[in-house]
Specification:
The complex is a heterodimer of chains A (861) and B (275). Chain A is α+β, with helices and mostly antiparallel strands. Chain A has 29 helices and ten strands. Chain A is 64% helix and 7% strand. Chain B is mainly beta. Chain B is globular and about 55 Å long. The N terminus of chain B is likely disordered. The chains are: A alpha+beta (861), B mainly beta (275). The interface between A and B is large, with 47 and 42 residues.
Chain lengths: 861, 275
C-alpha cells in the first residue's frame, strides 16, 4: 500500500468520502430490495442433476407445491356446519386472486400508449377494478397479444397477471376431489360431497361413503374423522414467483382464519414453511442486527471512550453490509437462512479493522498532534496487517464458494466480498474521515484495552515454564476431539428449525398427526415403454412398494395409478372390498368373480395380450371416459412412467433418507430390470442437500486450510511458522466439531458454517501474534523474550476482539431458528477458545520452532 | 338430446362429423340472394347431416403439446329411428388391449338415455351412468359437448360476417345457448362457426368459454364428397387447446352412408358380441 495513495486521500478527504458515500447509498438502496427465500431450490444449486430432474418430474406430472389446509374439530367433522365450511372454503379458494393496484396502473398505461389496439379490451378489464372476474378477459387479451404482436414485455406482464388472477390450479377437498364410486349404474367419478348434506341422515350417509373409499381415508379425511384437509396447488412453481406465492399464502391465511372457530383451521406444507422462514428471517435480521450493533457500540465505547472511535468501526461494518446485500440483490441471489447469519458475521469481522485503525491513530495522534501526519503514520503502520487479515478472512470464507450447497456458496462468496468491502472502506473512507473529524482529546484514556495488557505479563512467564505440558494438553485435546467426530449427525428439518410454540411448528404437528403428511416424496417408476403401466405385474409391484412404505409410521399416505386400478376393480366387482386389488397380478390372467350378467364366461385368454392387462387397459379407458382427470398427476401421457406420491409426516432428513432407502431397496429387489426408479419432490431435494453437506464441508475446509497456510507461509516466509500459526486454529476447528458432536447439534447447511467462521475470524489472532513476534526477533530480541513481548503487545487486541465477536454472536441466541441459535453460542464459545488457544499455544511453540529454524540457518552458513 | 349428461355424447362423433356434409345440389343459387339469417345458415348445415345411418372408422391421435402422442382406432355407427331418436355404437379396434371395447347409447323420448359399456376382458355388458357434458371425451381435447350435433332450437344463431377460409367462401355465424338447461350446463359462452357457403359444411369453430376466452379451435378439412352420394364430409378434424397447447387429431376413413343398418346392431346383445 503506497504512501502516495494515502497522501492523495489525506489531501482530498471530502472527495473520497462522498464517492464512497455515494456508492454506499446506491448499494444500500439495492440492499433494501434483497429477497428472502428459503425454498430447498434456493439451497441446492439450480444446475444440480437432482434439481433438473425434479423440474422435469413436475412438468411431466403437472405437479406443483402443495399447501395443506387442515380443518380440525375434536368433536368430528361430520356435521353440517363443518362440511358447509369445507365446501365454501374450497369454493372461495378457487376464486382467490392476488392482483395489485400497480397491475391496474400498468394496464391502464398500456391502454394509453398502445393506441386503439387493445384499449377497448383493457378498459373492459379495468372496469370495476381487477378481480377474479377478469380472468377470462385477461386470458383473451394474452392470447390476442401472443398471436398478433410479439410485444414480449406486454406478453410477460399479461402472463404474470393471469397467474395473479388465478394463482390456484387445483383444489382437492371433499367437495372437489374426484371420487370413484360404485353405484347401481356402475362407475361414477364425482366429488364425494357434490353438495352439502341437508340433514343428519345425509351426513351419516356421506360419512359411511367416505370411509368406504380407501382412497380418501388418511388422504383427505383423518381416520378418526376429527379432521379433513383441503389441498391447494399453486398455479406456478414457488421459485419462479416466490413473491406471488407469499401473497397467495397471506390470502389463504386470512381466508382460513375467517372459517376458524369452533373448528381449527391451520396451514402447513412446504411453501408455508418457506414463507414462514422468510418472514422470520427478515424479522430476525431487523431485530438482531441493531442489537448486535448496539452491543458492539457498547464494547467499542468501553475500549476507546471516544464516540468517533465507536462510529468509525461501526461505519466500516455498515458499509460492508450495504455493499454485500446490494451486490446480492444486483446479482439476483436470495438471502437464505444460511446467508442470514452473514450480517452478524460481517459486523464481527468488519469491526476488527476499525478497532485497530482507531486505536493506533489514537496512540499516534497523542504523540504527533497533527491529524494528517498521524493518519499517514497510522496507515503506514496498519495498511499491511489490515490487508493481510482481510486476505486470510477472505480465504477462510471464500473457500466456501466451492461448496455444493448454493446457499453456502453464496454465504462464502458474499461474506468474502463483504470483507473486501470493509477493506476498501477501511483504506479509503476511514483515513479520510480521520483527517476531517475532530481529533481525540489528548487526555483520553485508552480504556479497557490497556487493562488487559497487564495480566498477560504474568501469563507469559508461566507459559514459558510449562511448554511441554501445554503441548501434551493440546495433543490430548485434539485426540479426544477426534474421537467424538464419528458421532456427528447430519440432518435438517425446516419445521424443526422453528421453536416448538411457533404457529408453523404446531400446524405441521397437527396436520402430520392426522393426515398423510406435509412432506412429499415422489417415486417415479419408469417402465421404459409406452403402456408399460398397464402390466398387472408392474402395477402389483407398485402397490407392494406403497404397502412397504405405508408400513412405516412416518409415511402417512401414498397414492399411485395402482390405487385407481384397485379402486375401479373393486367398483366394477360390485363394491366387494376384497376386490380392491390389482386384477391378475400373480398370473397375468384373472377370473370374473361376480355374476350379475349371466353365466360366468371365465377368463378371456384369447388375443395377443394377457387378459388382465387388457382388463386394466379397459378400466383406464373407462375411467377416462367417466371424466377422470386426477390420474394425469400420477401417470405420464403414454403410460410409461408412474408417479407414486408418498406423503411423509416429518421433514427431518435422516428419516426421509430411511424412507427413500426403503423404496430403493424394494425397487432393487422387486423391480429389477423391469423398471427404473428415481426420486423427486421436496423430500428428495432435502436428502440430496444433506448428502452434499459433509463432502462440501470437507472440501471447503481443506481449501481454506491450504489457502490460509499458503498465506501464512507467504507472510512469514517460513513454512514452520506458517504451520505453527495454523495449529491453534486447526485445534479450535476440531473442538467445534467435537462440540457439535457432544451437544448433539446436527450438521446442516447452517451449522456447517461454524468451522469456516471460526477459521476465518480466528486466523487473524495468529497473524497478529506472529507478526509482533517477528518484529521482535527481527530486532534481535531472543526467542523467549520475543514471545513474551508479542503476547503482551498483541494479547489485549486479540482478547478484546474475541470478546467483541463472541458478544456479537451471542446475540444470535435470540434468533427464531435453532441452527442460528446454535451458530450464536458455538461461535461465541469457540472464538474465546480460539483466542485462548492462540495465546497459550503460540508462545509455547513458536520459540522452539524459531530456534530450530535459526539453528539450521546457522549451520547452513 | 333429452339428457345432456348422458353418454349419447359418446357416440355422437358420428353425428358431429355428419355436420360437415352437405346435401344441397345447387351451390350457385345462393350467390345473388340476400344474406340468409344465422338460423337459415345453420338449417342448411343441419340438413346435410341428416342421414338414416352412417358408419366411419376414426383414427384418433392425442398430442400433449410436448411431443408425446397416443393413438386409438375406433369404428362408429349411428342410426336415427323413425321417431327421430338416435342410437349410436362405438367399438374400439386399437390399441390391442382395448380392442372390442364398446359403448352403446340409445336415446329415449321420455326418460334418460340408456348407456351400456362392454369390456371384453370382463366379457360382460354393464349399464353405466352419464357424465358431465363439459368433461373430456376419452381423454381427448374434445368434450362430449363438442361432439353433440347442433340443437338448433336450443341456440340463437346470428350471422356475423362473410369470410374466406382456405380458399372457401364461408358464412361466420355466432351461436349462443338460449335453452335454460343448456345454458346451465354448457362450457361455452359463445361459439363462432365458419360454414361453407356452397357446401354448408362446418370449416372451423372458435370456442369461447363462459368468461369469453377463446379456449379451443376446431378445424375441419379434407372435405370430400362421399363416393356414390351427394354428401360432403370432413376427413380430418383437429381440436386445439389454445391455452394448454395440446391437440387431438381425428382422421376419418371411408364414410358409409345410408347402408340400411339394422336396429339389431344397437342392442346389448350385439354389443356383447364384441366384434
Amino acid at each position: 500500500m503506497s504512501e502516495r495513495f494515502f497522501r492523495r486521500i489525506v489531501r482530498h478527504p471530502w472527495w473520497v468520502m462522498s464517492m464512497v458515500g455515494l456508492a454506499t447509498l446506491f448499494f444500500g438502496w439495492r440492499a433494501a430490495h434483497v429477497r428472502f427465500d428459503n425454498s430447498i431450490e434456493a439451497i441446492l444449486p439450480a444446475e444440480h442433476p437432482a434439481v433438473l430432474q425434479d423440474r422435469e418430474v413436475k412438468e411431466t406430472f403437472r405437479s406443483r407445491e402443495l399447501v395443506l389446509i387442515g380443518i380440525l374439530s375434536d368433536e368430528g367433522i361430520f356435521n353440517r356446519r363443518t362440511l358447509a365450511k369445507v365446501e365454501a372454503l374450497s369454493r372461495e379458494i378457487w376464486r382467490l386472486e392476488v392482483a395489485e393496484d400497480d397491475d391496474s396502473r400498468r394496464l391502464a398505461r398500456w391502454a394509453e400508449e398502445g393506441g386503439a389496439t387493445y384499449r377497448e379490451s383493457i378498459e373492459a378489464i379495468l372496469e370495476n377494478g381487477l378481480d377474479a372476474s377478469d380472468r377470462g378477459p385477461v386470458s383473451s387479451l394474452w392470447l390476442r397479444v401472443r398471436e398478433e404482436s410479439p410485444d414480449t414485455e406486454l406478453l410477460d406482464f399479461l402472463g404474470r397477471l393471469r397467474l395473479k388472477l388465478a394463482p390456484v390450479s387445483e383444489v382437492l377437498s371433499l367437495s372437489e376431489v374426484e371420487g370413484i364410486t360404485a353405484s347401481d349404474q356402475g362407475l361414477v367419478v364425482a366429488p364425494p360431497m357434490a353438495r352439502v348434506p341437508e340433514d343428519a341422515e345425509a351426513v351419516a350417509r356421506l360419512a359411511s361413503e367416505i370411509f368406504d373409499n380407501e382412497m380418501l381415508v388418511d388422504g383427505l379425511v383423518s381416520a378418526d374423522s376429527t379432521g379433513t384437509v383441503i389441498l391447494v396447488e399453486m398455479a406456478f412453481h414457488y421459485d419462479d414467483h416466490y413473491d406471488l406465492a407469499r401473497t397467495l399464502l397471506d390470502e389463504l391465511e386470512s381466508l382460513s382464519a375467517r372459517y376458524a372457530d369452533p373448528e381449527e383451521v391451520r396451514l402447513a406444507g412446504v411453501p408455508v414453511v418457506n414463507v414462514h422462514t422468510s418472514r422470520y428471517m427478515s424479522s430476525d435480521v431487523a431485530r438482531l442486527l441493531p442489537l448486535v450493533l448496539l452491543v458492539l457500540a457498547g464494547i467499542l465505547f468501553a475500549a476507546f471512550r471516544w464516540w468517533r472511535g465507536v462510529l468509525i468501526p461501526l461505519s466500516v461494518v455498515l458499509v460492508a453490509l450495504a455493499w454485500t446485500l446490494g451486490a446480492m440483490e444486483l446479482l439476483g441471489r436470495p438471502v437464505t437462512l444460511v446467508v442470514s447469519a452473514m450480517p452478524v458475521i460481517l459486523v464481527a469481522v468488519g469491526v476488527a479493522d476499525g478497532v485497530h485503525l482507531v486505536s493506533e491513530y489514537q496512540a499516534i495522534f497523542a504523540r504527533m498532534r497533527n491529524r494528517e501526519k498521524a493518519v499517514l503514520a497510522t496507515m503506514g503502520e496498519l495498511a499491511g496487517p489490515v490487508l493481510l487479515t482481510s486476505l486470510t478472512d477472505m480465504a477462510g470464507f471464500g473457500s466456501l464458494a466451492i461448496s455444493g450447497i448454493a446457499s453456502i456458496r453464496d454465504f462464502g462468496t458474499f461474506t468474502a466480498l463483504g470483507v473486501l468491502g470493509a477493506l476498501v472502506f477501511s483504506l479509503t473512507f476511514v483515513p479520510a474521515a480521520l483527517v476531517v473529524l475532530k481529533p481525540p482529546e489528548p487526555k483520553v484514556s485508552r480504556g479497557a484495552l490497556e487493562a488487559i495488557g497487564g495480566g498477560l505479563e504474568g501469563l507469559g512467564a508461566a507459559l514459558a515454564r510449562r511448554r511441554r505440558t501445554i503441548l501434551l494438553v493440546a495433543l490430548g485435546g485434539a485426540a479426544a476431539a477426534l474421537l467424538t467426530l464419528p458421532r456427528i449427525q447430519v440432518g435438517s428439518s425446516m419445521v424443526g428449525y422453528f421453536q416448538e410454540d411457533s404457529e408453523i411448528h404446531r400446524a405441521s404437528e397437527m396436520i402430520n398427526g392426522r393426515f398423510g403428511g406435509t412432506e412429499v416424496l415422489n417415486i417415479v417408476v419408469d417402465t421404459r415403454r409406452p403402456d408399460g403401466l398397464k402390466d398387472p405385474v408392474i402395477l402389483a409391484r407398485i402397490a407392494e412398494l406403497q404397502d412397504t412404505l405405508e408400513a412405516r409410521a412416518l409415511v402417512g399416505y401414498t397414492t399411485s395409478i395402482a390405487d385407481y386400478v384397485k379402486r375401479i376393480h373393486r367398483v366394477m366387482s360390485g363394491g366387494d372390498p376384497g376386490a380392491a386389488r390389482i386384477p391378475g397380478a400373480a398370473t397375468g390372467t384373472w377370473s370374473v368373480a361376480d355374476g350379475d350378467d349371466g353365466p360366468d364366461t371365465g377368463p378371456d385368454d384369447s388375443g395377443p395380450t394377457p387378459s388382465a392387462r387388457r382388463l386394466i387397459a379397459q378400466y383406464l379407458l373407462l375411467y377416462e371416459n367417466a371424466g377422470g382427470d386426477d390420474l394425469g398427476k400420477l401417470v405420464d401421457f403414454d403410460y410409461r412412467k408412474a408417479n407414486i406420491i408418498a406423503q411423509i409426516r416429518t421433514d427431518h432428513t435422516p428419516r426421509l433418507r430411511e424412507i427413500r432407502e426403503a423404496a430403493e431397496g424394494f425397487a432393487a429387489r422387486e423391480l429389477g430390470g423391469s423398471a427404473e426408479v428415481s426420486f423427486a419432490g421436496c423430500a428428495n431435494l432435502c436428502i440430496v442437500a444433506d448428502t452434499l453437506i459433509i463432502p462440501s464441508q470437507l472440501k471447503s475446509l481443506g481449501l481454506a486450510i491450504l489457502l490460509v497456510l499458503g498465506l501464512l507461509i507467504g507472510i512469514f516466509r517460513s513454512a514452520r511458522q506458517g504451520l505453527l500459526g495454523l495449529l491453534p486454529l486447526a485445534l479450535t476447528v476440531l473442538l467445534v466439531f467435537a462440540m457439535l458432536s457432544v451437544f448433539g447439534v446436527r450438521l446442516d447447511a447452517v451449522t456447517a458454517l461454524i468451522a469456516s467462521i471460526v477459521l476465518g475470524i480466528g486466523i487473524d489472532y495468529s497473524v497478529h501474534f506472529i507478526s509482533r513476534y517477528r518484529r521482535q526477533t527481527d530486532k534481535g530480541v531472543p526467542d523467549g523474550e520475543a514471545a513474551r513481548r508479542a503476547l503482551v503487545a498483541s494479547g489485549p487486541a486479540i482478547i478484546f476482539n474475541s470478546l467483541a465477536v463472541a458478544a456479537g454472536f451471542l446475540v444470535l441466541v435470540l434468533s427464531s431458528f435453532w441452527p442460528v441459535i446454535h451458530i450464536g453460542w458455538i461461535v461465541a464459545v469457540t472464538m474465546i477458545l480460539a483466542a485462548a488457544i492462540t495465546l497459550v499455544l503460540l508462545p509455547a511453540t513458536l520459540p522452539g520452532a524459531a530456534t530450530a529454524a535459526e539453528g539450521r540457518g546457522v549451520e547452513a552458513s | 338430446m333429452s339428457d345432456p349428461t348422458s353418454l349419447l355424447n359418446l357416440v355422437t362423433p358420428a353425428a358431429a362429423l355428419a355436420l360437415f356434409a352437405s346435401t344441397l345440389p345447387f351451390p350457385a343459387a345462393s350467390q345473388a340472394a340476400p344474406t340468409p339469417t344465422g338460423r337459415e345458415i345453420m338449417e342448411l348445415n343441419a340438413a346435410q347431416d341428416r342421414t338414416r345411418d352412417s358408419q366411419v372408422t376414426v383414427e384418433m391421435t392425442l398430442e400433449d403439446g410436448r411431443g408425446r402422442s397416443r393413438e386409438r382406432v375406433l369404428i362408429m355407427w349411428r342410426k336415427t329411428r323413425s321417431d327421430g331418436t338416435r342410437m349410436q355404437l362405438i367399438r374400439f379396434q386399437e390399441p390391442g388391449d382395448v380392442e372390442g371395447t364398446g359403448f352403446l347409447q340409445v336415446e329415449n323420448r321420455e326418460r334418460d338415455d340408456d348407456l351400456w359399456l362392454y369390456l371384453p376382458a370382463l366379457r360382460r355388458v354393464r349399464r353405466i351412468s352419464g357424465t358431465d357434458r363439459r368433461d373430456a371425451f376419452m381423454g381427448t381435447d374434445f368434450t362430449y359437448e363438442d361432439l353433440d350435433p347442433e340443437d338448433l332450437d336450443a341456440h340463437r344463431y346470428t350471422w356475423v360476417r362473410d369470410d374466406t377460409l382456405r380458399g372457401r367462401p364461408a358464412r361466420v355465424v355466432e351461436a349462443e345457448a338460449v335453452d335454460p338447461e343448456l345454458r346451465e350446463e354448457t362450457a361455452y359462452g359463445r361459439r363462432l362457426l365458419w360454414v361453407d357457403r356452397e357446401r354448408h359444411v362446418l370449416l372451423r369453430a372458435d370456442l369461447f368459454d363462459r368468461e369469453g376466452v377463446l379456449t379451443k379451435r376446431l378445424t375441419a378439412d379434407e372435405i370430400r364428397r362421399v363416393a356414390g352420394t351427394d354428401r360432403w364430409r370432413a376427413h380430418r378434424l383437429v381440436m386445439e387447446d389454445l391455452l394448454e397447447g395440446g391437440r387431438t387429431l381425428l382422421r376419418m376413413g371411408e364414410w358409409i352412408l345410408d347402408q340400411g343398418l339394422s336396429d339389431d346392431r344397437f342392442t346389448e346383445r350385439y354389443l356383447r358380441r364384441g366384434g
